[in-house]
Amino acid sequence: MNTCNSLALLALSATILSGCASFRSDASPDVVYDTRAEAARELQVPPDLTDISNAEQFVLPGTSGGPVTRNTLLPEFSTVRFERAGQQSWLTFERSPEDIWPELLAFAKKEKYLIYKTEPATGLLVTQWRPASAVAKANLLKNLIGADEEYSRLSFRIERNGTGSRLFARSQAASEKVANAPASDKIAWPASSHDPEETSAVLNSLLVFLGVEEQKARGIIDAGQASLVTDEALVQETGAGRQLVVQRGFKPTFTAVLAALNQLDYAVTSSDDGVGRIEFMDGETPMVIELTPQHISEVRAALSDMDGRRLPETTEETILNALLAKIA
Questions:
Q1: If you classify domain 80-221 with CATH, what class do you get?
Q2: Coil, strand or helix: which one is 196?
Q3: In whole angstroms, what is the distance from residue 61 CA to residue 117 CA?
Q4: pLDDT tens-digit profile of 58-92?
Q5: What's the confidence (pLDDT) of residue 32?
Q6: pTM check: above 0.70
Q7: Which tens digits make up the pLDDT trace of 108-154?
Q8: CB of 319 within 8 A of CB of 282?
Q9: Which of 2, 16, 32, 281 sits at 20 to 30 Å (Cα–Cα) from 138?
Q10: What pLDDT is recorded for position 39?
Q11: Pairing between strand 277-282 and 80-85?
Q12: How far apart are CA 170 and CA 158, in angstroms?
């Protein structure tokens, strides 16, 4: 009897095992079996997540008087310093307001602020309202949800401070509806509208701009080195030809370049952010842009034909400068 039971159990086990085997399939969506493992596609990871090189170095601290670079951490300059007391921050200069005023105007121009008014007699500069983001007016998602885009404006004020001067800034945010209303530039600046962190960020950007201009004037750095510090993107001549240098991470740069090509009406035929390659048509001529991360916050884009050869200088310069105008 025991022998019969044992044989029955063995037969049942064999049936169950054969049934399990029948469910095994190389096409199973959640398991890749050994017989097909070599065919599984390798996961593609964006370059900026894997290629963090030693180029991302910082100078600690930002020594006063030393040449400033893009990677200098919080640089110090001999004639201007950042100060803060509670919620109020400002820049203190060893130079007169007459020296600071034209540089403030140059900073506003570089940052593409549209000026609402200037009052040199009181040291006041006020910008117009502008969008706080790059969301387009015709953005489909924005139209569907009916959300207002946030707008912002800035006010700068210079005052004398002994033989030097101090520069204060104030930021204000408002909805698109408020910013676009009639006489919106005359809206008051209540204390509740003050954003200390935004103001400090603007003042730090202004400090770097003024410090770089000072070093450029003194011959500590040249114009090209200055551009690498203050510009978010620029076209640079290298040994391999001209390249578009963008001071952002890889993914945002790839997205920005792709969007710029579409805005310039180039026909994009292929794009792969896994390898940083975009193929497009310039008329009847196929071309390639290859994006290479230098470190986590700098990407270089180079143009070539489909075989990797450099394009004619005029073509290269025209396309890269057009992309720069859209990205910067």
A1: alpha beta
A2: helix
A3: 38
A4: 444 455 567 777 777 777 787 888 999 888 899 99
A5: 47
A6: no
A7: 998 889 999 999 999 999 998 888 663 333 343 444 444 567 888 89
A8: yes
A9: 281
A10: 47
A11: unpaired
A12: 12
- Residue 59 CB coordination number (10 Å): 15
pLDDT, tens digit, for every residue of 241-296? 899 999 888 999 999 999 999 999 999 999 999 999 999 999 999 999 999 998 78
The two tokens of residue 108 are 């506003």
Residue 59 near residue 69, CB atoms below 8 Å:
yes
- Spell 104-116 as b/e; 16+ CB within 10 A means b: bbebbeeeebeeb
Residue at token pair 């009052």: 119
The answer to whether 244 and 301 have CB atoms below 8 angstroms apart is yes
User: Distance (Å, rounded) from C-alpha 176 to C-alpha 150?
Assistant: 6
132 in Cβ contact with 159 (< 8 Å): no
The answer to whether 46 and 248 are in contact (CB under 8 A) is no
Tokens of 231: 């510009």
Neighbours of 296 (CB within 10 A): 17
Q: Which amino acid, one-letter code, is at 154?
A: L
Beta-strand pair 164-174/233-238:
unpaired
Please provide the DSSP assignment of 237-275 as one string: EETTEEEEEE-S-HHHHHHHHHHHHHHTT-EEEEEETTT
- Sorted by where each begins, the domain ranges of the chain are 80-221, 231-327
Q: Give strand pairing partners of 157.
A: 124, 168
- Whether 155 and 189 have beta carbons less than 8 Å apart is answered as yes
Strand partners for 127: 115
